[in-house]
Model the fold of this input.
Amino acid sequence: MSTRIETYEQYKAAYEASVNNPEAFWAGVADQFSWRRKWDKVLEWNFTEPMVKWFANARLNITENCLDRHLAKRGSQPAIIWEPNGVDEPGRVMTYAELHSEVCRFASVLRSNGVQKGDRVCIYMGMVPELAVAMMACARIGAIHSVIFGGFSAQSIADRLQDAGARFIITCDGAYRGGKDIPLKNTVDDALQTSGGVERVIVFQRTHTAVSMIKGRDVWWHEEMAKVIDSGVTEAEEMEAEDPLFILYTSGSTGKPKGVVHTTAGYMVYATYSFENVFQPKEGEVHFCTADIGWITGHSYIVYGVLCAGGTSLMYEGIPTWPDAGRFWEIVDKYKVGILYTAPTAIRSLMAFGTDPLQGKDLSSLRVLGTVGEPINEEAWNWYNEHVGKRRCPIVDTWFQTENGGILISNLAGVTPSKTSYATLPLPGIQPILVDEQGKEITGNDVSGNLCIKFPWPSVIRTTWGDHERCRQNYFATYPGYYFTGDGCYRDSDGMYRITGRVDDVLNVSGHRIGTAELENAINMHTGVLESAVVGYPHDLKGQGIYAYVIMDSMPDDEPHTRADIAQTVARVIGSIAKPDKIQFVPGLPKTRSGKIMRRILRKIAEGELQQLGDVSTLLDPSVVEIIKDGRL
Ligand code: WT7
Done:
């Protein structure tokens, strides 16, 4: 598309234009897409309710932008290349024409199974191309998809189905990940025992393991697809710009995960614009984003942004270290990957194997490297730069959040300057500011503060599903008039941004976002647990580890065993990604006289900074601090 920024000068000009006249700027970007009807007004907004509307009254369907409009030029170009988990299994390539036809056929399956515009459809699948097909088939007919990461538990699925009011779920019999065969359908069955309301389960066959198929409720994907006689075009539903496209659940500092709502036009425009400008893809180049589609990174940079831009997206089913730590490099060489987009946690886990797995790998196709999900430490950045990029590939450190839809702060590959462990500069349209605890803007450079954004961009969160007040409370109430990210940030003397991590009670464990409140709820469900408090601590591989302080009704006789049991309960309630790394049994927690847990102290102890606990005199029982210190794991 022609809104591609190619020089640093152009970046500065685009940035300025986007701030001086946002409506004209975004209208210019949006002009590049295919609309059934154009907008009446580019932007209406206030951050108090909040209310944000982009491209009001425009009409479109995102799948026509991802698929139909590319057919003439790119019908036979690969849209999705799929690399399976197993090294001996052949991969698959789906051209734009094939993907279009699959999406249309599955859209027709959805319709014949009773899915209507506006219905919520949950998707709990492994990383197979049919996952992308399922998402776009929903979008084709105006159904709202909600993808649930395959690592979440039955209870988590049930919570999401319930919250979204979903009557449909699409799953697989199982999923291959590394040496494991994950029983997805069984987990869905467990979820449906506690969660009513689901009328239809569509099951894609991947692992051919035995599953139970309930009459009248469960149907096979392949059998339903075979019934579609007219494999032609399923007419795309004409959507309003602000119609919801998807819900994606994410953790906050309180309560259960909330459903972040993204809408059709704004999300499409920003996911695509950010993809093109951050990664600077070349015609026909293979883009390999290693994220799971269950996260926003996968939604935007495996599926929607890449396909809207007419790119080729490589989707990998497995994990970086299986069958060995050379797997990513084999995939890069096999498909001549140009852009590799991964997470610091993956880089660190590969670093641990040294450079042997890189021996004999060519990697000369690589042109751009990307990182996302957590702050990247210098050691990991340098290793990535030296051993993977051979010092010739720009590294884009891309900062964003589920609520943002697309990358907000990042260098543009080869176009704007990079700086180790800095996300660097905001994309055009993004107006970041730092504020102090009182919400006062901190101006100037070489300053730190809480990161807020003061003006809407097209893919800012619109609401949290079913609970608009929660959206306001979470993001727009802390610092009135601003969107609050929950991240701390430093702006250096050149005005470059370095994200320093969450300042709220949200943990980032191996790039997975987990709320401490959620963890405590899960731990407290375990028999014998009276109370618990969870904090994060620096972890070499995971970025942050989970440290839980637990009060039991009586001290356990076999501590390791009880720890393992509690971890099992957490895996049951949330998923195995949330298992605590350390569980310390304590007789009490440091609380103020008003009963508030002083997490600051617990954090310091978990971090091992025992000398810097600060003032403990306001505690109800300061002696408990000594006991906790002595028992530190
Ligand atoms: C949180 C959002 C959207 C990416 C997947 C995670 C942290 C994300 C970076 C980065 C430092 C980062 C922040 C943010 N984060 N990218 N490049 N540098 N921190 O999405 O699950 O919504 O988590 O991930 O703390 O708030 P998410």
Notes: Residues 250, 295-297, 372-375, 397-402, 423, 485-487, 499, 501-502, 508, 513 surround WT7 (CB under 6 Å). The longest strand covers residues 529-539. The chain has a mean pLDDT of 96. The first helix runs from residue 8 to 20.
